[in-house]
Give the backbone structure.
Amino acid sequence: MRVWIAGLTFLGSAFAADTHAPQVTFNKDILPILQKNCQTCHRPGQIAPMSFLSYQSTRPWAKSMKTAVVTRKMPPWFADPQFGHFANDRSLQQSDIDTISKWADSGAPEGDAKDAPVAVTWPADGWGIQPDIVIEGPSFTVPAHPPGNVVEWMYITVPSGITKDTWITSMEIRPSQVDVTHHICVVFRPHTDDVKYNTPVWADRPRDEQGNAEASAAGVNGRGIPEDVRKGNGNEGCYVPGQAAQDYRIHNAAKMLRAGTDIVFQMHYTPNGKEVVDHPRIGLTVAKEEPQQRYVSFGISSPNDAKSFAIPPNDPNWESPPAIAEFTADVDLVYMSPHMHVRGKDMTYVLTYPDGETETVLSVPHYDFNWQLGYYPVKPIHIPKGTRLTVTAHYDNSANNKFNPDPNRTVYYGDMNWEEMMFPFFSVVVDKDVDPKKLMRVVRGLKADGA
């Protein structure tokens, strides 16, 4: 009997302690998590479909929030924590997940307004950066139902309006119609008298009725990049789902935008059955004084001819040929971003130093085409001259891949979502006086020039 009474007393004490536990409220407990991890996307003008700036806009989504964080669907983050630490890691700690779950389960109370942290001052008009200069891009009508549902990559040149040499410290590319925008990249190109502004240029590629390019058209030579664009300095920056802005200020670095430069927009749209007009813009911030370091962007590709890059039907784990580059000067690696299409499965960046030591600097074991994130190391990774970067990737062309439009066909390298790519981006910083053209050479694969 004494044992039973003791047990009853213990249970009663535990129950009493639970009933007096502090209530989890929006203002005190949830809003700080949202400010740190979610509001970058969940605010007006950004990619998320709902705003988490206020209790009123957040409360209807409480249960959905719980499900998303418990399953770690949100916030999107795909880097393997075993390799590297990243400054923009917004993944939630387990304690944050537990807090959101308790809040949703308890009726999502608002709490006392006095407990709320000071609101974050976000850039106006939905920008991720607050631009000093806004450059208007070309307008383009994306048709609802083009033949084969294909709008080939196109290139449209506009004047930058820059009248003096300008060091830019961040860049953001913003399409107005994100639902149909696969990507938009920009190239800075010296002005020539023969340029035709606001005139789309593209190359038709032979395709079947389903919009698939013929194998003979696979690879970079089939992309139809206009010759005048090839004379430019490569991609300076891109918009892809999941990222739009790159900020060089954290490294005291900048890019040079020369007076009179023209800007070539590389535009790729995926029609969704509704005709829309996209009007992208570029936002730039400008250095108040000359920077000490230059920010240089690169992209390299695996070999992409039809013989080298052909994913067999129903293959769940096809390994592409690697992309390999060698640094021909000392640099600091500050950014990495994998790019594949809907069959992309994983991508890994490995450095091999001159002494033979290897280091995995980024592993993305569960690539998601819908969230093509960039990864910023907490500390720049110093890379001495002679170091090689080897990037490998795998693809799931099986029926188990829910995004796979057709597991029963061979998939070649190509521009459209239902074709494939293996294109790792990365950026480095160097002394401002270093020639960006002399930083890297491709050992295997293909390169987009440094920018």
